[in-house]
Amino acid sequence: MASTGLNGKEASSGTGKAKVVLYWLEKSRAQRILWLLEELKIDYELKTYKRINMLAPPEFKKVHPLGKAPLVTIQAEGAAEPIVLAESGPITEYLIDHFGPWLAPKRWQEGKEDQVQGETEEWMRYRYFIHYTEGTLMPYLVTVLLLQAIRAKSPFFIKPIANAIAGNIESLYIKPNLESNFSFLESQLKSAPDGGGFLCGSKLTGADILMSFPLSAAKGRSGFTKDRYPALWAYVDRLENMEAYKKSVQKIIEVDGSYDPAV
Question: Based on C-alpha coordinates, what's the Rg of the chain?
Fold first, then answer.
């Protein structure tokens, strides 16, 4: 485990200064939380860990009972104990609510505040994609990872059977579902409000930051190619070339020696 303090600007919220700690695990969704912290330009402590047999090390369970990454702790000035945030969506929403409201679209249409169907299209997209990333897209990519592990780790005398089973799952279940999702995202980018460029419109939001990891991991594999999905490919390129994204990758290279966006 490596630990470092970054940015040099203390996080401020409605409760005063706060100490923010990110528990980062290699080849995990924690990378996009690191990007979010860089985007917010607040001070935070980064603790990095290596996987053990594909799993998070035991230290993670000392922070949260499930021992999964990412984890964030936040301790407000004067608080006796920090709060522990788990799951990428709630972490993103909490950090944006307190430290970066500009990364969420305007919620209400003029004159329709607090009314049913009074939300803007941009905000409805934001709320949807915050949950879509983990609820719909990531399970397919995780299944791809598991099938790869089955192929690689099966004993040689059953490997042909394991390969056949994995191949059938990929062709009958994974491939058509990933194609549907990539096509859906392609169309969503083309129809985004205010000229598009991002999922919710012309500006970066927390939903884009969450989407960065699965799409970067899938890029060039799992049927995600530039020829088939040009708008989606250009979108991922746009995300990967944003200054705070590049800073987050560089932080990991400096602390950990390398960075691999694979799931």
Answer: 20
